[in-house]
Amino acid sequence: MDSVRAHDRSPSPPPPPARIRVGSAPDSWGVWFADDPDQLPWRRFLDEVSEAGYEWIELGPYGYLPTDPARLREETGSRGLKVSAGTVFTALHRGPAVREETWEQVSRVAALARDTGASHLVVIPAFWRDDKTAAALESPELTADQWRALTTGTERLAAEVRDAYGLSLVVHPHADTHIATEEHVERFLDATDPTLVSLCLDTGHYAYCGGDSVKLIKTYGERIGYLHLKQVDPVILADVVERGTPFGPAVRQGVMCEPPRGVPALEPVLTAAQGLGVDLFAIVEQDMYPCPPDKPLPIARRTRAFLRSCGA
């Protein structure tokens, strides 16, 4: 009898493949500010992101899209769109002095994200130099005390956002911030609680700062909670690095380019991400501020088609 049971016992089915939920963001339509005459009106952004074939969007800068949750749900739902995340900039390395200001900003964005069905809050560290003049506002490297303030402050914020709004906090390494290079990212991850703090891996920013996205996914896979997909033009990047160009002017120079024209190759990144066996958002963010109003939609269509060819 036992041998029959053993013979009849079939192997466990493999786990279902991870789902990569592809979306885009106002950034890919040249939107960096809540209100700017050089940017597309928000209705046109929503129309075009839907027309390009995306289902998910991020909120972008708070105030660009309607901040009334009911109205925003109506506007997105009528176009077949859903919200994946809101975004905030923080300066947590400055310690308790910025706590009240940080929470005021976070609470506004997190409430709107929650009330429109989002599941994540993307946190970007403050810039250490002026984005237009390149003047240093702070040292590009943190002291030991500032690192402790950053890591403990991020953990505390993540717990508060989870408890108050039910959102997962993901930290976005970003050019010209204190979490940018491979060394920065690894130090930050090693010093923070994995049950609280995950990473929004932006493939373009990580390559901009010399990092290898596939290596990071394979090494710290359990910490990857969200993806931003973009590429950098290696020729322009070399000039940016040589001249010490700040990020804003580098974007105007075209350092972030349409895939598959740049680096990193996105198919290996998506393959590595799918190998984690978890569902992930992968939001396209091609920094293009400012840009002509008719430029984003054709790029968005081609990018969506390219990502489908990569299995996403």
From TrEMBL:
Report the superkingdom from the record: Bacteria
| Xylose isomerase-like TIM barrel domain residues | 46-308
Ranges where the record places region Disordered: 1-21
Cite the record's Basic and acidic residues compositional bias ranges: 1-10
- InterPro entries recorded: IolE/XylAMocC-like, Xyl_isomerase-like_sf, Xyl_isomerase-like_TIM-brl
What is the name of the protein in this document?
2-keto-myo-inositol dehydratase
Which organism is the protein's source? Streptomyces luteoverticillatus
